[in-house]
Design the sequence.
């Protein structure tokens, strides 16, 4: 690493800080590439951006008539570039909030898109999160839904509160429509148009994800002292081919994006977000959330052959995620629950499913992990 820095300094007449951020960025890109690597894939950068940290830029409000916002980038001791910045209404609001001290400037990423330069300001805010949550909100991707949410209170850990579903049908429609147009353009060999299209599609999908994320955060806010938990989907592309289920595959990537938006929006509302490691999410869709029995599921309803419970399949899986987190927080015993009176005759025995659940809970101490970045 040291020689890389030395060489870079020799080759480019740039600030040490700028070379450092470039190195950090390269490491980040390489890491995320390795994590999401598909077989025989070559690292290709679709877009290059330059990161400036606090040491290399200043941003100020002036009385200039063109635009009051000016960004000055320092490349080395002698060279500085001042650039006028024009914001959209929403961004302007945020920037004004930052000038008032509600946010902090961290880094600026300069990106070139369609021949024009864009400045992405990365802002940060310190929010206070309640240290003792009272409600666990599990958010899961489903077989038949883009996302499912369920809330479970500390006071009554065995009784899930009303769940909510997001079908994601608008996203499905957008993607279907664009794949149709893309095919047509490819037939006509209009490849440049195909490229433009993907940006449009992404923006439309993102817009939908923002709407859903807002609704998820609103859902969470209905409950006292909520904390959100989701499955850690890092490295999901690796297992992509293994997954036989098309629906789940279809939903996985937008769901991952959704997680990032939910995390950001929830944190702004003072709601903590944590991720349940993948290995601890095992069998959540096959396990009966009431008795712990594990079975194959077909169709939309989970029918437990052990205790007779019938439940929406996606909601059942989501409840299992919440339960696993709650067990690790000590809110809930790890024993499968006894069936209610009317279910006598199908009393659960310690089957393969529940013993697996046991080994899951004994094999770790605290499964919640913060995902970085
Ligand atoms: Zn059951």
Sequence:
């Amino acid at each position: 690493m040291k020689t890389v820095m030395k060489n870079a300094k020799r080759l480019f007449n740039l600030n040490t800080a700028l070379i450092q951020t470039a190195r950090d960025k390269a490491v980040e890109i390489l890491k995320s590439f390795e994590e999401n690597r598909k077989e025989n894939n070559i690292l290709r950068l679709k877009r290059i951006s330059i990161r400036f940290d606090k040491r290399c830029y200043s941003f100020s409000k002036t009385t200039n008539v063109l635009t009051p916002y000016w960004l000055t980038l320092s490349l080395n001791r002698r060279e500085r570039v001042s650039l006028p910045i024009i914001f959209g209404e929403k961004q302007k609001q945020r920037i004004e909030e930052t000038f008032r001290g509600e946010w902090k400037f961290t880094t600026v990423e300069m990106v070139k898109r369609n021949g024009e330069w864009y400045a992405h300001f990365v802002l940060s805010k310190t929010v206070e999160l309640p240290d003792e949550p009272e409600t666990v909100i599990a958010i899961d991707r489903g077989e038949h839904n883009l996302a499912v949410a369920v809330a479970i209170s500390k006071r009554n850990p065995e009784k899930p509160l009303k769940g909510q579903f997001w079908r994601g049908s608008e996203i499905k429609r957008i993607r279907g429509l664009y794949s149709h147009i893309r095919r047509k353009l490819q037939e006509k060999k209009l490849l440049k148009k195909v490229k433009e299209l993907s940006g449009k599609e992404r923006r439309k999908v993102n817009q939908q994800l923002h709407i859903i994320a807002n609704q998820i955060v609103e859902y969470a806010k209905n409950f006292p002292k909520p904390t959100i938990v989701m499955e850690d989907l890092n490295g999901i592309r690796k297992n992509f081919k293994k997954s036989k289920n098309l629906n789940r595959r279809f939903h996985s990537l937008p769901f991952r994006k959704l997680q990032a938006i939910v995390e950001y929006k929830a944190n702004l509302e003072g709601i903590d977000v944590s991720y349940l490691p993948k290995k601890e999410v095992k069998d959540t869709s096959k396990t009966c959330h009431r008795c712990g029995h594990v079975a194959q599921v077909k169709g939309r309803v989970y029918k437990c052959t052990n205790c007779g419970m019938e439940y929406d399949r996606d909601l059942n899986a989501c409840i299992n995620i919440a339960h696993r987190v709650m067990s690790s927080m000590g809110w809930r015993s790890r024993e499968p629950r006894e069936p209610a009176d009317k279910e006598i005759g199908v009393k659960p025995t310690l089957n393969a499913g529940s013993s697996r659940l046991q080994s899951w809970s004994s094999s770790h101490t605290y499964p919640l992990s913060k995902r970085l970045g």
